[in-house]
Design brief:
Elements: E1 2-7, H1 10-17, E2 27-30, E3 37-40, H2 42-46, H3 55-64, E4 68-70, H4 74-91, E5 94-99, E6 102-106, H5 110-113, H6 116-131, E7 135-140, H7 143-155, E8 162-164, H8 168-177, H9 188-196, H10 202-207, H11 210-216, H12 219-228, E9 246-256, H13 259-279, E10 283-293, E11 304-315, H14 318-332, E12 339-350, H15 369-381
Parallel strand pairs: 2-4, 7-8
Antiparallel strand pairs: 1-6, 1-7, 2-3, 5-6, 9-12, 10-11, 10-12
The structure holds a DNA duplex.
Length: about 425
DNA sequence: TCTGGGGTCCTAGGACCC
DNA sequence: TCTGGGGTCCTAGGACCC
């Protein structure tokens, strides 16, 4: 048996927890660069503020409706996430952290000691008491059914935020009510295709013949259908598998037309990517860079391009990765565009930095590379100062906008919440 | 003026091997 | 007139997730 616990309106709730004065007011959180709405609390949802709405288009309405608006504060959300996950891990035999705000719980054996619905309520109470955040809990014999139960727990308030789908009759009853588009693994495209086949409700997908599903879709949807029938196809993945790729990219605060600024940005993303790579204890052999103009800009022709390069020896050295990324940039740079975004991607990972050299290769590994990088990371994590590459620049005029950023309440001493008595 | 960032998995098709 | 069978690896593109 699985449970899915996820935090209601996670980002918006994190902001609200530290701002009791906002109680009852609509709260939204914007994407990076203050681009569009990515989280809304219940009050904001009541105002029909759509997910993904561009901020600049909806700003006037926000002012009229006294909506509290925040830039994304990932330092805060990541820390609050850790707190929630720690609580969940203490309550369940096994936990799979699925995203920043949700986790699957393996409930094997729990029903021997406790009613599962009561367990769900206990999880809610504890998370609320210890973090101020509210979770919804869905329970079912497969992950997909647990997800569906969670959806129901959030959609219908009379459930009290917990839905247990242990019983087949309850599963089927819920599935007659829920659109197939709400099922986990069914996105916009597949939903439309299913509708064309006359499959509109979740139950119809559950009952559809396997052959029909396989004829029109891939094995992925077949698994989804089986899971809806109560046949587990997906297991708990308690230990995060090693990453296959690392991407670091950002939109620019203002459009970039100057090569030097683009180079700084690419260089900075490459450095960040290399740090992530070392945190994964991996070495990479493929580096690529991309640039693009805004797809929304009218009267401007779109230009986007990407270039990749193979590195002879797997590396985790920032110097190699910066060099490779800037080489890629030079291959795709074009003057005369107003660029909106760029990024760096790493791939082809190895767990150690040794590879068989060709007979005539002369690319000896950099001596002392590991130790140098370790020193770099230690300094940059110490909180006492930063060292960086000259190529990253000092002004960073291209950096993203975060004009409504809240304090790092939980991760920076100077930002600690003050309570006046 | 202004529209996020970071991932995974699957499939089809081409290149290439014997 | 007739031109095999079986396989791997890689990449691009499409779908999905949060």
């Amino acid at each position: 048996m699985f449970a899915l616990a996820d935090v209601n309106s996670f980002y918006a709730s994190c902001e609200s927890v530290f701002r009791p004065d906002l109680q009852g007011r609509p709260v939204v959180v914007l994407s990076n660069n203050d681009g569009c709405v990515i989280a809304r609390n219940a009050e904001a949802k009541l105002l029909n503020i759509p997910m993904g709405a561009p901020y600049f288009k909806i700003r006037a309405q926000f002012e009229r409706d006294k909506v509290a608006v925040f830039s994304s504060n990932y330092a805060l959300y990541a820390d609050m996430s850790t707190r929630v996950m720690t609580i969940l891990e203490a309550m369940a035999p096994a936990v799979e952290i699925y995203s920043i705000d949700e986790a699957f719980l393996n409930l094997q054996g729990v029903s021997n000691c406790q009613d599962l619905e009561a367990f769900g309520h206990e999880v809610r109470a504890k998370v609320r008491q210890w973090t101020g955040l509210t979770v919804g809990v869905g329970i079912g014999p497969t992950k997909t059914l647990a997800k569906l139960a969670n959806y129901a727990a959030k959609k219908w308030s009379q459930t009290g935020g917990v839905v247990d789908l242990s019983l087949m009759a309850r599963q089927r009853k819920l599935m007659t009510l829920v659109d197939v588009a709400e099922v986990w693994g069914v996105g916009r495209r597949i939903a439309k295709k299913l509708n064309n086949l006359g499959i509109n409700k979740a139950l119809q997908l559950a009952d559809a013949p396997t052959a029909l599903i396989r004829k029109h879709f891939s094995v992925v949807l077949e698994r989804t259908a089986r899971e809806l029938r109560g046949e587990p196809c997906l297991e708990m993945e308690e230990f995060a598998p090693t990453k296959q790729q690392i991407i670091c990219s950002r939109s620019f605060g203002d459009r970039v037309s100057q090569y030097e600024l683009m180079r700084e940005a690419i260089c900075s993303h490459a450095v960040r990517a290399a740090e992530k790579l070392r945190a994964e204890h991996q070495y990479c052999r493929y580096v690529s860079a991309f640039v693009k103009t805004s797809p929304f800009a009218e009267n401007e022709s779109y230009y986007g391009n990407t270039a990749g390069t193979k590195i002879q020896i797997p590396t985790q050295d920032s110097r190699d990765i910066v060099a490779a990324a800037t080489t890629c940039l030079d291959a795709i740079w074009q003057d005369g565009h107003r660029f909106q975004k760029c990024g760096v991607m790493l791939g082809d990972f190895y767990s150690q930095g040794v590879a068989q050299l060709g007979l005539f290769d002369d690319y000896p590994p950099r001596p002392g590379s590991e130790r140098l990088m370790a020193v770099l990371d230690t300094i940059n994590h110490s909180g006492k100062g930063q060292v960086w590459f000259a190529g990253q620049g000092t002004q960073k005029s291209w950096e993203m906008k975060r004009q409504m950023l809240s304090p790092a309440y939980t991760t920076r001493f100077s930002d600690l919440l003050r309570v006046k008595l």
